[in-house]
Every structure is written in structure tokens, then in C-alpha cells.
Write a structure and sequence with these properties.
- The structure is a single chain.
- The protein is an alpha+beta fold and about 240 residues long.
- The protein is globular, with a radius of gyration of 19 Å.
- It is about 20% helix and about 25% strand.
- Strand 8 and strand 9 form a beta hairpin.
- The longest helix is centred in the C-terminal third of the chain and has 13 residues.
- It has two domains: about 90 residues, 2-Layer Sandwich (Alpha-Beta Plaits); about 140 residues, 2-Layer Sandwich (Alpha-Beta Plaits), CATH 3.30.70.660.
């Protein structure tokens, strides 16, 4: 299943007791379609509160026989307006939406001009100028294979923190900065923490070549503030 969502009114993707989440909303509808037999979806990964997605992916099993056309139509009829199923295809029984991912693409948008209330749920309203040249120079240091311990959640003590970033780009149009990363995977808060560091560099408060030093420290406390969730969008997941 390929699906999109506006994360503005969700407490993230993963189910949480007493909180509205994307996973719970989709599983609730699928379980109903499945005649009340519980359906669990397995996504390519979790997204945080306020984070959006254009092409998130997940797999699931159904007992009930239903055509893909009717399944997609039923899902979009009963899901809330801030979730939409783009496509559903049949996959082999050994397919896994998380463990078979080759690449993920995320983008982060920053507004450097006048505050725009219409964009506030999808673009970080920073509303101050940034040194784009220095941010672009700094961005190059993120490319390649690195240990991203400094740029992930301090709560994560066990997981291997090494990831490979294949591309990292920055563009600006009409005052909106778009930073795009493509990698073999991302850690919790990784993109938002990298962007937070790039903003600090764009403010000219730290040098653009500080990133290798931050990698070496392997300490979340050495990095800077985590950029807000609403500027982040999962663009696509490639298998």
C-alpha cells in the first residue's frame, strides 16, 4: 500500500494509547473491511508527530477476498480526509515493507520570508534570512557513510547508528529553502537534527565545517536543536 497523510493533527505514525495516529486510523478501517478480523499494517518506518508523507509504504494481510480496486475505494471512502491511499498492489508472501527498503527520500522546507499561516503545517516558519552558501557547503559533509549517533535520539542506546546518505541537496525558491536527503535509512529525529545544525550554520553561529567534529563526538548533546516536525515530509520509499 502506497499512502499519503497530512501529519498536522496526528501524534505520529505509530499506535499510542489514547492518541490519534496514522497506523491506528488505517488499521481500524482495514479491520472493518476484513470482517472484523484484526489487520496489522507494517510500514517502511515511523514518522514523528506533525511529519507529513507523500508516498509512505506498508504491507498487510487480508483474509477477505476483495479486488484491489474495491479495496482502495473502500479505504479512501472510510479513512479520514488527512489520509489517502494512492495505490495497492499484491506482493509475494516474503515481502517486508521495512526490511526490504533500498532508499528513503525526505525533504525539509524552511520559510525565510514573512510568516505564512497557510504554510505553517508543512513549512517551518523560521522567517529570518540564512546564509545559503554556507549551508550548502556544510551539506556536503553529510553525504557518504557515517555514524549518526550525534544526530539521533539520545534514547536509542542499542541500534546501529551507521547510515549511508546517497544525496543531499539544498535549493531555494521564493524564500523557501528545500533540503532533500536520500539514504538507505534514517534514525529517529536524524533529518530534523541535521537540519537544526544546518540552520545554526546558516545563522553563522558555528562554522560550516563543524559537522565532521560532531560525527566524531558521537554525542547528541554536542549537536543543536531539533528542527520542528511540520517542516519534514517523507517523499518516497524505494524497494
Amino acid at each position: 500500500m502506497d499512502f499519503s497523510y497530512d501529519g498536522s493533527n496526528f501524534n505520529g505514525y505509530q499506535k499510542q494509547p489514547g492518541k490519534r495516529t496514522i497506523q491506528e486510523e488505517i488499521e481500524k478501517v482495514l479491520t472493518s473491511i476484513n470482517g472484523g478480523s484484526k489487520v496489522i499494517i507494517c510500514s517502511s518506518g515511523r514518522t514523528d508527530a506533525k511529519v507529513n508523507a507523500i508516498h509512505q509504504k506498508a504491507h498487510f494481510d487480508l483474509i477477505k477476498k476483495v479486488t484491489l480496486y474495491k479495496l482502495k475505494k473502500a479505504l479512501n471512502s472510510y479513512l479520514p480526509d488527512d489520509i489517502h491511499v494512492n495505490d495497492i498492489i499484491k506482493v509475494d508472501g516474503d515481502f517486508h515493507a521495512r526490511y526490504m527498503v533500498k532508499y528513503k527520500i525526505y525533504e525539509y522546507k524552511i520559510n525565510t520570508t514573512e510568516y505564512n499561516p497557510l504554510q505553517r503545517n508543512h513549512v517551518f516558519q523560521y522567517c529570518k534570512p540564512l546564509n545559503i552558501s554556507k549551508m550548502k557547503k556544510a551539506l556536503r559533509y553529510f553525504k557518504g557513510t557515517h555514524d549518526f549517533t550525534t544526530f539521533t535520539s539520545a534514547e536509542n542506546k542499542k541500534e546501529n547508528k551507521v547510515r549511508k546518505i546517497y544525496s543531499a541537496t539544498l535549493t531555494q525558491k521564493n524564500g523557501i529553502i528545500t533540503i532533500t536527503f536520500m539514504a538507505n535509512g534514517f534514525l529517529k529525529y536524524q533529518v530534523r537534527n541535521m537540519v537544526g545544525t544546518l540552520i545554526k550554520i546558516g545563522e553563522e553561529k558555528v562554522p560550516f565545517n563543524i559537522i565532521p567534529t560532531l560525527f566524531d563526538k558521537k554525542d547528541r548533546k554536542s549537536a543543536f536543536l531539533c528542527a520542528p516536525g511540520q517542516g519534514l515530509t517523507l517523499v518516497d520509499v524505494i524497494y
